[in-house]
């Protein structure tokens, strides 16, 4: 992986999608040989390429280039003569509401009204380089960065005002987009002071408002562009239309890893239809979506496939790792051997899909030697690199623009849709819009890794965990280490050969690791007949995790009442991306139908100083609801390189009726820096649900999803 | 897959037992005949056999639609999905493509006051009917009470499902101005929000139903 990425973020190995090779090795042959292929008349161009035009492909899709952060204020913030403030960030809005929270950052430090601030996001020509919107980095990283830029700009406004008004700087006050000389009430607006000039000074170390004194941040601010959302005005990538634009479709292989054996496009001949073949890539462009779809159906195409691992062999396959665990270190082995109780359990986790409601989409335009692509990605600069690689052009010839996007959950880190749209646009000689179908989104995006987790533990008679041997196969190492104070422990991640393309998903493997750990902890407590909360607290020194567990338990009334018949209570907690979460869950099991229903979920969450309380609450609630799917019923089924359930009618996601009563307790730690909240609140739900199902039925469920076909009681 | 095949599949699969154990139908199919013409797939197979490809000119005709109170005419294939006609011919992009099989509700519009999945609605079947899209809810700069409620409750995250949610909610409130919570859940079951804002959407519908401008944001 690249140095810039390593330096910019903590990088977990399960972000496989960032280290994979490029999706396509284009030959781009038509640049030399295009005319030769204009042979089929009637407005059709069949663009094929010849082997002899193959250029040496660079390796490493999308990871070249990069950059460092600019230091001058003007790269981050601009004040127009009108007083309009524009801030710039390479982050992307995918529903986590950072457009709003970053606006709060600027308003807070600049002392300007929220209404005067606009944030330009994810535009590689306009915004400073950014590695990507992932790892819950926006709040701990970009929020302070824009605060610093805004505070520095405010200080310059003060300097300029002191100079123009010829008064003591100390007698000036910055409020509401202007500087006021307090004794005389004379004031100058930021627009009058800046005169729209770019501020080239370095950001430096202007004083920041302590979180305890925040006036705009720390308070609920409704979604800044909410009105455009509720009126349908906001344009997501699939809503963009350029003059002369065509619609594109890609001919998808019949299975993963298939190579294109033959293509016969004669029946796709129609006015305005272009068929493109370049290596293993084949696609069409047409004046309408329907015409493009018909052209795809008319093309006879054959793929060469190879046999592949299927879902039923998955877990045995994942255990065949090239780096199996060594024998336990002597101290750990000894500790396990002498434990009062020793427990050995295996947990499994299925592949699941992000299924963002906006499928991958891109609009690509080649104009005057420059490629511009609008696309919903969490990594605009990464996708710019992918495009530059694919077309062997400099990154300066590529612009990627990310409209606020219909969600990602870690699933939109790669730019294959941008590359495909650009390839089609290049062949058609016109702008092309490509919107993946739901089926394509299910099949050709990447999945949250499946995994097998083996846990062996030892516990003393009085409930102290003495030994812990934890091995995760394939799903990843986020959240691998327990926060529990265990004297002898080993926590290892073992890479496997994943049969499916896998990559980042909200909270990464932390959900899998928390599931195994927190269910196992419950099993240990059960083996000693100890209360699960008491057992956790006994083994926990970390005060922040204790605090959320206690807060959740208090709100839930843990230990105060017994569940009704066929109901169960469960608890779990965890730590991820500098946030702490605990869930108390009540489930109801219908023994006749096997249906498991979440009745009530209490979530206590703490991520430092809260930036936007209701925005945070929304994220926490959303994490819990999304987590229900992976906990109870979401699983990708596959065989021989094919996804068997690539539709919402075959892949069940949480719906209205799955929603439990939610109670969310937010602990505001003004003394701690603000951390991100898009990921952590998802990690505790699944184990809490498993523990509650056990409480209701004495059935211990150790596989995610737990009840895809209902519970067999 | 052609629209008619998608409609057939949706009818076949999303009946009472469909959708992996989730109860009930998720969508309202238009009540008019679905297949006025030869199913497209058969038509197409025939074409392949004859190695002809004049399908582009097939079935083009003038279609007259009442959209958001305005008469709109367009020359198109009447078998096209209403969703793509709204989006591509009239630039009404508020209704979204989410699944193409009536399972997610992102494409919901009102047809004669009923919430309908425009991705499974043939445009010819709605000629002469009143089509209202999210763009048509705002009247003289005033948002519909449910739009206001979505803002007040912050009933969204990424917002991609929002237009469909609002149109389904408006459809429900037209039928039932004071729905109970179970009635709201049942009516909205066919709309997916992957961000998980369901409790807020329920709260927004309740707020709009009650005309309660003071209700606070957040979940139940």
Structure description:
- The complex is a heterodimer of chains A (713) and B (220).
- Chain A contains 17 helices and 27 strands.
- Chain A is α/β, with parallel strands linked by helices.
- Chain A folds into three domains: 3-63 and 238-306 and 360-435, 2-Layer Sandwich (Aldehyde Oxidoreductase, domain 4); 73-224, 2-Layer Sandwich (Aldehyde Oxidoreductase, domain 4); 451-704, Aldehyde oxidase/xanthine dehydrogenase, molybdopterin binding domain (Aldehyde Oxidoreductase, domain 4).
- In chain A, the strands form seven sheets. An eight-stranded mixed beta sheet of chain A has the order 1-10-11-8-17-14-15-16, with helices on both faces. In chain A, strands 20-19-18-13-27 form a five-stranded mixed beta sheet, sandwiched between helices.
- The longest helix of chain A is centred in the first third of the chain and has 28 residues, at 138-165.
- In chain A, 57% of the residues are buried.
- Chain B starts with a helix and ends in a 10-residue tail after the last helix.
- Chain B folds into two domains: 3-135, Ubiquitin-like (UB roll) (Roll); 145-210, [2Fe-2S]-binding domain (DNA polymerase, domain 1).
- Chain B is an alpha+beta fold and 220 residues long.
- In chain B, strands 2-1-5-3-4 form a five-stranded mixed beta sheet, sandwiched between helices.
- In chain B, strand 3 and strand 4 form a beta hairpin.
- At the A-B interface, helix 6, helix 7, helix 16 and strand 26 of A face helix 2, helix 3, helix 4, helix 5 and helix 6 of B.
């Amino acid at each position: 992986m690249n140095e810039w990425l390593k330096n910019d973020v903590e990088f977990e190995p399960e972000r496989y999608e960032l280290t994979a090779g490029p999706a396509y090795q284009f030959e781009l042959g038509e640049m030399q040989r295009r005319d030769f292929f204009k042979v089929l008349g009637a407005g059709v161009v069949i663009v094929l390429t010849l082997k002899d035009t193959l250029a040496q492909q660079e390796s490493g899709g999308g990871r070249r280039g990069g950059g460092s952060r600019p230091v001058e204020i003007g790269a981050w913030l601009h004040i127009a003569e009108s007083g309009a403030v524009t801030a710039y960030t390479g982050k992307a809005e995918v529903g986590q509401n950072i457009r709003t929270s970053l606006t709060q950052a600027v308003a807070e430090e600049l002392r300007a009204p929220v209404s005067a601030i606009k944030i330009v996001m994810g535009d590689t020509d306009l915004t400073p380089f950014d590695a990507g919107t992932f790892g819950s980095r926006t709040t701990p990283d970009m929020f302070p960065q824009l605060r610093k830029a805004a505070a520095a700009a405010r200080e310059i406004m003060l300097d300029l005002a002191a100079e123009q008004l010829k008064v003591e700087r100390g007698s000036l006050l910055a409020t509401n987009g202007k500087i006021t000389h307090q004794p005389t009430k004379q004031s100058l607006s930021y627009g009058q002071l800046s005169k729209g000039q770019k501020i080239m000074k370095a950001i430096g170390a202007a004083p920041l408002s302590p979180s305890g004194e925040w006036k705009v941040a720390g308070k609920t601010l409704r979604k800044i562009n909410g009105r455009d959302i509720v009126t349908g005005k906001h344009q997501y990538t699939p809503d963009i239309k350029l003059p002369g634009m065509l619609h594109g479709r890609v001919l998808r292989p019949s299975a993963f890893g298939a190579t294109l054996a033959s293509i016969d496009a004669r029946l796709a001949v129609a006015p305005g239809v272009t068929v493109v073949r370049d290596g293993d890539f084949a696609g069409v462009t047409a004046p309408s979506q329907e015409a493009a779809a018909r052209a795809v159906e008319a093309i006879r195409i054959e793929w060469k496939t190879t046999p592949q691992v299927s879902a039923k062999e998955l877990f045995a396959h994942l255990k065949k790792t090239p780096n199996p665990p060594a024998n336990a270190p002597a101290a750990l082995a000894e500790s396990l051997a002498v434990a009062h109780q020793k427990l050995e359990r295996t947990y499994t986790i299925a592949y699941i899909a992000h299924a963002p409601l906006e499928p991958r989409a891109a609009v690509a335009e080649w104009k005057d030697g420059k490629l511009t692509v609008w696309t919903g990605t969490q990594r605009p600069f990464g996708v710019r690199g992918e495009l530059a690689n694919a077309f062997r052009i400099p990154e300066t010839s590529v612009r990627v623009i990310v409209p606020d996007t219909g969600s990602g959950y870690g699933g939109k880190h790669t730019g294959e849709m941008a590359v495909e749209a650009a390839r089609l646009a290049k062949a058609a000689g016109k702008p092309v819009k490509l919107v993946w179908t739901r089926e394509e989104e299910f099949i050709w995006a990447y999945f949250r890794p499946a995994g097998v987790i083996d846990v062996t533990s030892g516990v003393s008679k009085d409930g102290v965990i003495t030994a812990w041997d934890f091995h995760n196969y394939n799903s990843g190492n986020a959240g691998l280490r327990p926060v529990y104070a265990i004297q002898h422990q080993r926590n290892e991640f073992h890479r496997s050969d994943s049969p499916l393309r896998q990559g980042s998903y909200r909270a990464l493997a932390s959900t899998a690791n928390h599931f195994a750990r927190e269910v196992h902890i419950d099993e240990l407590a059960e083996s000693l007949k100890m209360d699960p909360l008491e057992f956790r607290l006994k083994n926990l020194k970390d005060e922040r995790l204790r605090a959320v567990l206690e807060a959740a338990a208090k709100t839930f009334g843990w230990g105060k009442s017994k569940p009704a018949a066929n109901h169960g209570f469960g608890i779990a907690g965890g730590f991820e991306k500098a946030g702490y979460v605990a869930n108390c869950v009540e489930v109801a099991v219908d023994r006749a139908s096997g249906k498991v229903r979440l009745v009530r979920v209490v979530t206590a969450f703490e991520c430092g100083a809260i930036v936007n309380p209701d925005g945070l609450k929304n994220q926490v609630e959303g994490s819990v609801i999304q987590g229900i799917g992976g906990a109870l019923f979401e699983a990708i089924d596959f065989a021989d390189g094919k996804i068997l359930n690539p539709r919402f009618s075959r892949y069940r996601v949480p719906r209205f009726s799955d929603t439990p009563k939610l109670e969310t307790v937010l602990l505001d730690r003004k003394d701690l820096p603000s951390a991100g909240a898009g990921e952590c609140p998802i990690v505790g739900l699944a184990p809490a649900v498993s523990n509650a199902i056990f409480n209701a039925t004495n059935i211990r469920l150790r596989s995610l999803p737990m009840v895809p076909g209902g519970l067999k009681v | 897959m052609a629209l008619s095949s998608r409609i057939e599949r949706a009818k076949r699969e999303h009946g009472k037992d469909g959708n992996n154990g989730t109860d009930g139908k998720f969508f309202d199919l238009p009540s008019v005949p679905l297949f006025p013409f030869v199913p497209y797939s058969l038509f197409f197979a025939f074409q392949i056999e004859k190695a002809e490809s004049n399908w582009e000119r097939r079935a083009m005709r003038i279609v007259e639609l009442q959209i958001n109170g305005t008469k709109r005419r367009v020359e198109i294939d009447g078998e096209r999905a209403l969703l793509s006609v709204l989006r591509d011919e009239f630039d009404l992009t508020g209704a979204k493509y989410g699944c193409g099989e009536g399972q997610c509700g992102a494409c919901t519009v009102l047809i004669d006051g009923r919430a309908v999945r425009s991705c499974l609605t043939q445009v010819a079947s709605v000629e002469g009917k009143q089509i209202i899209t999210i763009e048509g809810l705002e009247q003289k700069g005033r948002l519909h009470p449910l739009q206001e409620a979505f803002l007040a409750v912050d009933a969204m995250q990424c917002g991609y499902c929002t237009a469909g949610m609002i149109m389904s909610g408006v459809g429900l409130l037209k039928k039932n101005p004071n729905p109970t919570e179970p009635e709201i859940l049942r009516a909205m079951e066919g709309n997916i929000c992957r961000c998980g804002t369901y409790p807020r959407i329920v709260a927004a519908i309740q707020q709009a139903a009650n005309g309660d401008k003071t209700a606070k944001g957040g979940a139940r």
